[in-house]
Structures are given as structure tokens and as C-alpha cells.
Amino acid sequence: MINKTMSHYLILAQSEVTALALGGWLELLNEPELQPTDPKCIIWDREYYSGGEGAVLAYEYLASAIECVSGGNEGKIPLNEIVVLVDTVRPKALSAIAEGITWDNLIAMLILTFPEIHWVFGVILGSLEDLNEQEEHKAKFLVAEHSLPSLLSCPRRDAIFDSLELRQWVKDCTVKFDKGNNLNLPNRMHKAAAIEDEKSFAYFHGYTSFRYGYRTDVVTSWTLMSKLFNDGQNDKGHGFELLLEDMSLNFPDKPLNKNILDFDIDNDKKQGRAYHFLRLHSACKIHENSKFRILITTGQDMPCHDTLKKNLIYLKEHKKEGCGRKVLKPSGGMMDLWQKAGLFRFLREKLNRRGNAKGFFWPPRLLTPDAFAEGIGHGAPGKLMLIAETLLNRALETLPKANTVQDFIQGAVLATEAAELLSGMTPTMTLQALVLKHEFEARAECAFVGVGYHFDVKTRADEIENEVNAIAVRFAKNKRRESELHSLITIMNRLAQVFREAGRFEEEHECMVRMRRWHRHLVGLKVTNPFRLLTNGILWYAEFLLASFPLFMLVILLWLGASCMAWWFIDGSWKAAISGVWSAFFSGTAAPDKSSWSLIGITCIIVASGFFHLGVLVAYIYSLISRR
Hints:
The chain is α/β, with parallel strands linked by helices and 628 residues long. It has helices at 16-28, 54-71, 103-113, 133-145, 150-153, 166-177, 199-211, 222-229, 273-276, 307-318, 333-340, 343-346, 369-373, 382-398, 405-422, 427-447, 457-471, 480-501, 505-526, 530-546, 549-571, 574-586, 597-627; strands at residues 9-13, 41-43, 83-89, 118-124, 190-195, 214-219, 242-246, 292-297, 324-328. Helix content is 52%, strand content 8%. The strands form 2 sheets. Strands 6-5-7-8-9 form a 5-stranded parallel β-sheet, sandwiched between helices. It has a 4-stranded parallel β-sheet with strand order 2-1-3-4, with helices on both faces. It starts with 8 loop residues before the first strand and ends with a helix.
């Protein structure tokens, strides 16, 4: 039985000999001496896990053991705290879908299963000679950041947003191994950095950039900032395309005599952010080579009343127009942050969602419906489905225990990774991942006291609609639209519940508007009875009115105007028309001066429309009052 006590360092080995060899490193890390029966020492019994199901059983055992030991009594893996030491690995063999049962295949599967864990390899085998220049650079970076000496010489970089590119390397190896060339996993080609002294903000901003296609470093310490932006290699840029940067950084390990509030260099005082971190000197493109540098601040100008203004001028001078701007905290959620940062405007790629980093395609680019009709395409590889299922189970277990922004962000990453591994090839499971992803994101926005009151639900709803539409292509043609609408209603219903629990009434209302619309479309697919179609049309019109109060008022004015014109056309008196229409619409008691059937008919229509619209208006106002 595995002990539930959490361990910050775990050993994953193929034999007791290599496990004990790795155990020697634990003493250098001030850890207790490794014992043969220590639960943090996980050994793969190659002979026991053999046969047809050997790979599946071995993966399930190792995944369960890692989760149990690293989760502790609370049952959740803490962020940026768990390190797994692996005895050997071959980087070129880290494919998650390799056939049979191999050590490298198991490690690749586990790397994708635990995105919050930092992996370190004792011995890295295999030649890198046959790799191209870009792949060789990635492999050398992997070796440097994931070798045993890195534990002693490098500040730890949070792996949750794949800052060290290990998960992307595994995905690339997996795509290469796919002989059918049907895998189309999203590719994060560019990097971002969320520089914050408050961890909630750091993870919130970091996840936002991650969901839009950036591998992101969460920078919450002076030590890590020094490594990334001032490590002595001044002939190279920092390599981040996007910087989400707080102005006032009071890191716990920040020296007291260092002032980095001002972005520019103050050579006289030997202060300034660019002075202490040369790679953040935007005036020098060799060192500071980001495309977007976003200053995120509460807007305080103390202690120097003009610091914010000077920083904005600095960004305006050294960045392209619109690429260096200010975003005030608190922002109104993830979409609002991206909007105010101008990234929806600048990050536009053909046949891709606006706001996505270059090269990152999501929703997944799937085969056309005609291709499916011809029998082309199939579900996700079995091992990817196994990994995705484990990720979803972990996310579901996280949900009832989550109570902080970091917890919800962690769950969102698990669901996001599951959705991207499946990429719509297994549509039902991908949709399950999308439900969890958006629920975790909404809960993170609501749990974060630093987020603005109104969230951009409309943009989120549009994104959900595009995602579900792309994934529903996998369903049969005659069930596609129905399955799509069912999925949309399910996801939006979960979001409405989240906003209702948080007291976010306007956001809940927007969710209800979308749900009603989709529900009417769903009913319209199934109804053929003319009377039911008429009823459905009336309900659709009522929901159209409830979508927006200003729109509701505009529609009433249009009804009044059209009715007055019709009355005047028959009666010839504007005074009688205005008086009669007003009385008929709002009181239902007016009678025309002339006893013509035309005026009587118009009066009846006006009375009926007034009764209907005023009834909807009363119901709308009551719903607003009752929710508050």
C-alpha cells in the first residue's frame, strides 16, 4: 500500500540499482536517504507488465502511483513543487503512441498525463545528429533543462504551461511516429512570460496566453527573472514573443536596494528594470525582442507620480503601434484581457481563431464532411484516448476540491490538454473535455477577486460555438446538427450554473439567452406540426425580446410607430392615430372614432401586441428583481 504522505521528489526507475543511483542525488537536495521500501521510489517491473495489455496496465500502475504519492492527503498535486527523477530516456523515442511496451513510450505518456510535474532525466541516450537545426536546438534545450545538474544550478520553472517545451517535444515525436499522418495536434511554436509578484495574477495571465497558443513561463521570483532576462548571454534575445508584465514587482527574493519600477535605464542612479535586466531593454532589439509587451497594472503612480506615464511613453517609442500598451487590473476575465491587450486585433491568421498565436490552430482543423462520407479518417489513437481519459478523470477529481484560482487553472489545463490530444478525432470525449475546460475557466474568473465585475461572455459563447461546430463534423450527417446543439446547451448550462452560484447575474442572463436560442433551433429540427411551429415562433420572438432591454424598448417603439402609420393611413388623422394607438397598446380600452372594420381589426392587433409585449416586459423586470 502506497503511503499518502506527499513527496516533493519522486524516483521513477526500471530497476532498484538505477533507483538507488538516483537516490544519491536526493542527499544533495537535502532529502532523506532513500530506503528500498520508500513509496517515493516507483520501479517498473518489466517482466510483470508484459503481454497484450502490458502497456496499458503498466501505464495505469505508474500513473496511479505518481498521483497517489505526489498528491498527498489532499489528493491534488501542488503546482511547481513535484519533481520526478527518471533513470534513463531517449528523447527521439518519446512517442506516446509507440507500439508495444517500451520505457520511453511509458515516460512519454506520463509526461502528457501530468503537466504540472517537472521531469528530470538521469541519463539521456541517443544521438542528435540526424535532427534538423530546429529540432537539435530543442533537444539541447531539453537536455540542459531536464538533466540532473539543473536541479542544483537552475531556478525551477513551472511546467504547467509547458514553459520548457517538454510536452510539445513529446507531441512532435508522437505526430512523427503516426504513419497514417492523421494526427493533427495543436502546435505551440511561440513563448510568453507572465511576470507578476502575485501568483493568482501570474497563473491567470499565464493560462490566458496558454489557451491562445503560447508556451508560458510564470515568473514570480527575482531569481527566475534574472535567469530569463539577465543571465549574461547578452548577444541573444530572451525569445519571448509576448510579455504580460506587472509594473510594481515586489518579489519575495527581491533585493531591497533594487528599483525596477521604471522600465528604462537610469544610469545615474544605477536603477531601472532595463538596468537590472538587460534583456528587458526595449531600446535594444537584440536583447528585448518581444513582439508584444503588455503593461498590466492597477494604475497606481506611487511613489513616483509620473512613472506610469514614462513607462507608457517608453513602450510607445520602442514598440510598434499598438504592440506596447497598458491594461488596467482588474480585467474582466480572460477574453477581456486579450481584447484590451489588442491581441484579438493583431493575432489574426487565415482559417484560424482570432487571438491565437501564430502556428497554433484551435479549434482543430479536421477533415471535411465529404472526407468522412468517403470513409477517410478515424478516431484518436488508443493510447492518446487513454491519456485523455486519465486527464479528464483527474480534472473531475480536482473540481470538488478546487477553491483557489490556481486550483481552477490547474483543472483547466488538464481539460485543455485532453481536448488537444483528442483534437476532435474522438468527438464525444473531446466535447466532455470542452465542458470541463470552460467550466474551470469560468470558475477561475469568478473565484479571482482581482477580476472585473462583467465578463465577456459573448466572446466565450462565440468561441464555444466555433469549437463545437468543428468537432461535430465527426458525427453522422443526419445527427450532426442535433448533436452540436445538445453539446452547446450542455456547456452553456454549466456556465450559467457557475455564474448563478457566483451571483454574476448579467453573465448568467447572457448564457440563458444563448441557451434559449439553441434550444429553439433544436426544437425546430424535430417539429413538423404547423401549430407547434407557430408556437415555437412566438417563443422565439419572446426570447429575442428578452435578449436585450434596449432592444426590447426599440421594438416597442417600432410597433407603436408602425401602428400609428397604419391607423393614420385608414383614418387620416394623426391626433386620432396617436391617441388611439397609445390607449390600445398600453390599456387595451381604446375604440376607433370611425366604425370601420379596418380600424377595428387594427385596434385588435394593437391590443393583442400590447398585451403580449407588456406581459413579456413585466416578466423580464420581475426576473431582474428576483435575481437580486
